[in-house]
Specification:
Elements: H1 3-32, H2 41-58, E1 66-68, E2 74-76
Antiparallel strand pairs: 1-2
Length: 85
């Protein structure tokens, strides 16, 4: 596997992990407090970080956001779209 493959894998896995962090944080904040002062920000960050790490580890299994090109490299994006990196 080429350097381009691993760069694209890391980029896709990182994007997925950051999105998962944001979703977990939003979910925790949404259910834990009505007022901003009532939210346990340390716990929210801890839960979101754990979700982000789990997401990155799950990326080892596979990334549906990417496709494998004929030369074995990964392409991030929709294979039908001409703007694939």
């Amino acid at each position: 596997m080429s350097k381009k493959y691993w760069i694209n894998w890391a980029k896709a896995a990182g994007i997925r992990a950051v999105k998962t962090f944001a979703e977990a944080m939003l979910g925790f904040v949404g259910v834990s407090g009505v007022a901003m002062g009532a939210i346990d920000w340390g716990m929210a960050t801890s839960v979101a970080t754990a979700a982000m790490i789990a997401s990155f580890l799950m990326s080892v299994v596979g990334l549906p956001e990417v496709s494998v090109e004929e030369d074995g490299d990964l392409a991030i994006g929709d294979p039908e779209d001409d703007t694939i990196e």
